[in-house]
Amino acid sequence: MEKRNRPKIRPTAPEASPVGRDVVFGLRAVVEVLRSDQEVERILVQKDLKNEVALPEVLVLARERHVPVQRVPIEKLNRVTRKNHQGVIALISSIAYASLENVIDAAYEAGHDPLMLILDRVTDVRNFGAIARSAECAGVDALVLPERGGARIGSDALKTSAGALSHLPVCRVPRLAQTIRELQARGVRVVACTEKADKLLYEVDLSGPLALLLGSEEDGIQPELLEKSDEQVRLPIQGKVSSLNVSVAAGIATYEAVRQRLNTVVP
């Protein structure tokens, strides 16, 4: 069978930041990068910074572009750069984010059912990169991430993914619960992978429009999201360790979905 070609639905990664590949610092510089087309991962603002003239403009632009703003101690800013950051640092994404609606439309237009991974608070860059690598190899249409609480997609993530993030669309959404409802309204089943499930992964139909939901390294999938999923599945654990690494679980679940899809295709 020929390899399925993923539709081209997003622009290439943005140019590197003029003041550092992953970091822009200083109030005016951050304002300008927020006005540009560059993808900004998040803004770090010194906790007690209040009276700087340009700060309100930074906050307004960040809100308009749906860029998360984190108030952090000055020590954290100093760990990012020892230069004069003026209490504000922008972390630049190494990729351009895609529209989830465009991803779904492009999959249908290309003649196949969409297959996506929703990652609930997966924060470890190595896990995220490994998931992206497996997903790209499997022909997954996109990764879906929350605006807050996920791994930072900088050069480390790009490297860990072995370059997969240069080819795999990533969608950043404000609220995963709302996104799950929107997917279901468009006919996409959401199947949660959790060790708490009764059904095994191999007992569930994973063909058709599908989003696999995977949870954080610490405490799995949030209960609110589990309740909204269409089905819950688990992997069989035969050993003494109670759970798998999230990147390993993601790879197994993704390729089971791929196997089922290949078996449903008529030569």
TrEMBL record:
Record GO terms (molecular function): RNA binding; RNA methyltransferase activity
Keyword presence, Ribonucleoprotein: no
Keyword terms: Methyltransferase, Transferase
Residue ranges of domain RNA 2-O ribose methyltransferase substrate binding in the record: 23-98
SUPFAM superfamilies xref list: alpha/beta knot (SSF75217), L30e-like (SSF55315)
Biological process according to GO: methylation; RNA processing
InterPro entries: Alpha/beta_knot_MTases, Ribosomal_eL30-like_sf, rRNA_MeTrfase_TrmH, SpoU_MeTrfase, SpoU_subst-bd, tRNA_m1G_MTases_N
Cellular component, GO, one term: cytosol
Keyword tRNA processing: no
NCBIfam families found in the cross-reference section: rRNA_methyl_3
Matches recorded under PANTHER family: 23S RRNA (GUANOSINE-2'-O-)-METHYLTRANSFERASE RLMB (PTHR46429)
Protein name (database record): 23S rRNA (Guanosine2251-2'-O)-methyltransferase
